[in-house]
Amino acid sequence: MKLDKRLMAVAELVSDCATLADIGSDHAYLPAYLLLENKIKRAIVCDVNRGPLENGENTCRTAGIHDKCDFRLGSGLSVLEENEADVITMCGMGGELMTNLLSEKVNVAGSAKFLILQPQSAYDMLREFLYDNNFGVIDERIIKDRHLYYRIILASSDADAVKDDFLYPSLLAERKDETYREFLMFRLKLNEDIISKISSASDKTEEISSLRKENERIKGVLKYYEDKRDN
Ligand SMILES: C[S@@+](CC[C@H](N)C(=O)[O-])C[C@H]1O[C@@H](n2cnc3c(N)ncnc32)[C@H](O)[C@@H]1O
To answer: Does the beta carbon of 23 lie inside 6 Å of ligand 1?
Structure first.
């Protein structure tokens, strides 16, 4: 089984574990891959919609790993008990939805050793939720696939929650991650283009001011790269 670049980056963050629960699993490609690679012993494949859950069952049956999987129909973490999963993954959903699902069952989220989250949007909202609820971010990744950037967070309630910029945190800059630098430059330019397009509109002053502030934060993170290069 081959995963795309995004799910492969998620798979690389999974350390060997007994049980992984994949929320919003659809085809169950991620848990199936991890079972076939012997990185996990069991998988709980979860989805709120019957069609995607059946897709997941088909994938696992075809791959001959059906007996190592539970299939659960329901929303978010409501289908899990505390301590049932060592690792919980949530990928390819909006960050706001993920934040809501985690906050509805924060006890279940906190009972897992690791959360691996790949939001499609509202990255800062999710990071803020993790910080406010004492989940520390242990690691993160950014990858680019077919012109889109994807960000992945590895978090744990056992790790210290450290305050950082929720949208543009510094870990990847400290590591001199080249894709993150490219992403920051992309966002800087995007914001500058928006500012120049709306600069003459009198009702856009707040938006312009907020974009300018965001760009100052981006420049602050980019400065890490310059400083590292100089050292
Ligand atoms: C875009 S797919 C992502 C599939 C896979 N995780 C991936 O990253 O490729 C999103 C999946 O989340 C499911 N989903 C949406 N809301 C959900 C919820 N509240 N609880 C569980 N699953 C949900 C959808 O049915 C769908 O199968």
So the answer is: yes
| pLDDT tens-digit series, residues 63-91 | 999 999 999 999 999 999 999 999 999 99
CB 77 less than 6 A from any atom of ligand 1: no
Four-residue CA torsion sign, 163, 14, 150, 93? negative
Q: What is the pTM of this model?
A: 0.96
Question: Does the C-beta of 3 come closer than 6 Å to ligand 1?
Answer: no
Residue 58 and residue 34 in contact, taking contact as beta carbons nearer than 8 Å: no
Q: Atom 23 of ligand 1 has which residue's CA nearest to it?
A: 24
Task: Copy the structure tokens of residue 174.
Answer: 């400290």
In the block, tokens 């971010």 appear at 137
Summarised one tens digit per residue, pLDDT across range 163-203 is 999 999 999 999 999 999 999 999 999 999 999 999 888 88
Give the residue, by CA position, lying nearest to ligand 1 atom 27. Answer: 26
Name the residue among 164, 197, 181, 9 with its Cα closest to residue 89.
9
Per CATH, the homologous superfamily of domain 5-167 is Vaccinia Virus protein VP39 (3.40.50.150)
Q: Is 76 close to ligand 1, i.e. is its CB under 6 Å away?
A: yes
Q: In degrees rounded to 5, what are phi and psi of residue 72?
A: -130, 130
Q: Is the CB of residue 56 below 6 angstroms from any atom belonging to ligand 1?
A: no
Q: Which atom belonging to ligand 1 lies closest to the Cα atom of 10?
A: 8
* Tokens encoding 137: 């971010």
Instruction: Please report, for the chain, the start and end positions of each structural domain, with discontinuous segments joined by +.
Output: 5-167, 178-230
Residue 152 Cβ contacting ligand 1 at under 6 Å: no
Token output for 28 = 């169950």
